[in-house]
Structures are given as C-alpha cells and as structure tokens.
Amino acid sequence: MHQILENLTNPDRGEVVWISKHKLYKFTKNNDTPTTPVGEILSHIFKERFFQTPIIANEQIIRHKISTATRSARKRCMSAIIEHTGKPSLGYTAHQTSSDASLYRTVLEHTGLYKNTETLCHWRTPKEIQSYPIYFAWTKIEEFFTLPHPHRHAKSVEHFINTLIAPPIGLRKGVLPLLLAAGIIAFGKALALPKIINGSALYVDDIQPSLIEEICEKPNLFELEVLTLTDEQKNNLSIMIECLTQGDTDEQEPDLIRRLYDALLKWKKHLPSQALTTQNLGQNANILQPILGQTYFDPVHFLFKELPIALKETQVLSLKTVDVFKQAICEIENVLSTLSKSAVQIATTLFNNRLNNPSKNQQRSLLTAASEWVSHIPFENKALTKALGFENGIIKQARQLQHQLQAHTAEEEQKNERDFVNKLSLILIQKELEEWDDKTLTLFQDHLEQTLTHIEETSLKHIDLDTTFSPLLYNKLAAFFNTYSDQIGADRLMHYLNEIRTTANVTHPEQKKTTP
Choosing a second label site near 138 at 20 to 30 A (CA), which of 126, 259, 407, 427? Predict the structure, then answer.
C-alpha cells in the first residue's frame, strides 16, 4: 500500500492531480509554495468516501487477503462465537494471548459489539452502540437478519456482502466472516439460509465457520429468507421443540427454525429403525411419517407448506398443528409398544381359537390360553417329539408358563406376555420384537397359526384314539361345535352332523373311556 501511494503522489515526474467529489488535490514539488501534506489529503479523501468504516485495531485481519495463520485464528474465533455466546469473553480468559483471543478483543469487544460484564454477556443491539464507529455496519447486519424482504422473497446475500464492502462502510474481506458469524448468532431468530446447488435451493443444515467463509467468498450461491412469526407462532414452535427434546434443547441456538431442525435430526437418530415406515401407528403418525421419512428434510418447507397442506390448515403453526404434531411424535415413539401389543393380541386370538371357550364373549389371557393349550398336547409321547422339529420349542416355551400365571400386577403380566411372544418370534421367524415392522405382524401370524395346526395334527397321528380319548381331540371338537353353533344354531348344526354321518355311513367305535 505504501509503495502504491508513493507512486500515485510523487510529483518527481511532474505535477500529480487527484480529483475527488469535484475537488482537485495537487501534489507538486515546489519548495517555495507550501502544500498540504500528502497524508492529510489522503485522510480527508478517504474520510469523505468511507465515513462509516468501523475502526478495528488489528492489522492482521483488516485486509482483503489474510495469512494462513490468521485464517486459522479467525475460524477458532468464529467457533467461539457459535458455541460460547453468552459466556464471559466468549470463553477466552483475560490472560489468553492467542491470535483468536486477540481477534475477539479487537473485533468484537473493543468495538462494543459484545457486552462482557460479570453479570451479563450478550451481543449488543445497534441502539446500544450508537457511540461506536461500527454502529452503521452493525445496523446493516441487524437489518439483513431481522427484516424480511418487502415482497416476501428471498434476500440476496451477494447484494448484502457488496454493501458491506463498498463505500461508505468499506469492510475488508478478512474481517467480514467474523461480523457475519456474530450477526447470525445475535439476530438470527427464524431464518432460512438455502444454498443454490444445481439450480435448486437446498436448506443449509449446519452453520459452521467453513460455511460462513464460503458465504463471504461465494455469496452468489446463497440467499436468505427472514421468516416473520407472531408471538403465538413462536410459542407453538417452542412447544414442538420441547416435545422432541423433553427439555434437552440447545439454548445457545437462537434460531427457532434451526433449533427445530436440530431437534428433529437428534430425535430421528434415536428412533427404532422401523418407526417411520411402520403403518397404522395412529392417525396423526400416518400424516407425519411420509414427511419426516424423507431423505432430504427442509424445516421451512415442512412448517410453512407440507404440514399445513397435510392438515388442510390455512394458518401456519396453529394450535391444531401443535396438537397433531405432539400426538404423532408420541405415536411414532411408541412403535415398539404398539407392535408388541399387536403381537400379543395375535397370539392371544390364535391360542384361544383352539380352545373350548366357556365364555363366548370373553377370551382367556395369552398365558392362560397357551398354558391350557399345551396341557392338551401329549408331550410325553417320544414318537411325537421325534416327529416334530423346531415345533418342540413352541411346546417347551408354553409349558414353562405355569409359574408366570401368578403375576401380581398388570405390568408384570404384560411383561410376561411380551417375553413369551418374543420367544415365539425368535423360534418362528428369527426376529426379536425390536426388529418388527407392520409386515412382520402378518408373517408372525401365518407362521404361528401354521405351526400350532401342525403340532395338533401331528399329535393326533401319534396317539391311539382307540384306547385313549385325547383331550386335544375333545377340545378341537368342542371348539368346532361352539363356533358353528354360534353361527347357525346348535339344532341346525346337529342336523347337519347327523346328515353327514348318515350319508357317509359312519359307524363309531364304542367309546371305551368316559369323556371329560
């Protein structure tokens, strides 16, 4: 800079004249005629042209091109802005002399942007720093991150960056990322910052120092939409975030939209893998699952377009929206419980269907029904055991239920039922309940029904019905009679059975043992 100015102001080759705002400034070599010092002339010109330039006392950062070491220090300082806002000196100690600590003091604290006291540490608003030279630049930054476009369009990041660089502000590119990072954290309350990739605007999912540097270096790739939310909408959005985080929210993140996005990502990460694909978890879950299950998720599009359309709502972030969202989240989170209850109900129905139900309107519990069913199976018959394969595992598990029938609480009973179904699932389809989805329900039902039928049919083949009246056979006949007598009436059923007996000319052997 010194060499360039020397060439432009040195009159050794003749008179040098500068023209600025219709004024002539002559640099002559005339010892007889007193002239204004070069420094004063340049200061006057620059002060007129850059009268809103912030005064930042750090020559390492007040440059268009900074060194590699300064760039690294700038990144560390931006990380402190993002991660430690609200802490004294952004986490830097009073005796810390690192390059990034120096950047914090010269660019952020001494300029008045960051208020650092023993009781309160926060970013000041422009009204609080009117006496500081950085006031005008900070005002422009606040307006960019808080005022929406007058026609509700996305705002040009490139135009904003050019405004900060051009007169009268004239910020150097080296310091620009620091002020941009501070502005996002200080004023960003509900923002959409998409990046243009292959012609499409994609939501930026994380604000990091490298991204802020890219915004400053390639501003044409970014745009900003400031979302205006009412106090009621902000409150409803906070409730949605609370629903996802259960109070474990990042209070350091001032942007509610980004806080919702981060909360949803964290929530989805800890969901069971089948939670967003399993159907019939609930009416509200059915609405939310297709949206949340998308590979690419844009929280702005979700809140302002997809969710209102799905709910047929004209108002964004209404109380109805919050209510549906909360219920859907609960239904999705309970996917394993829902699948477990469905599995227990399937098993309960299948075991009850094989028993003579004394009460036509009331089923036995799963463990009672399975225990009674297995008592009819002649498991002491070695020929039967040999004829069966993996089905012996079903018999074994059912036989072990006797000691679980005395559960003292409903919670204990439910746990025992889930454990029993889980063991059946491992035997039949080699999956634990935690691995289930809605398709597994049908698979489990088919396998269990086929297996129970096979066990019964094989049992009847390996016992001598001429010498022993099988409890299994009695139970099957009784269940058959009860089922069809309910449907067509006992008299009509007996009429059909007698007609079949007569037509088939069936002669029954003398019953050698009194039926139970």
Answer: 259
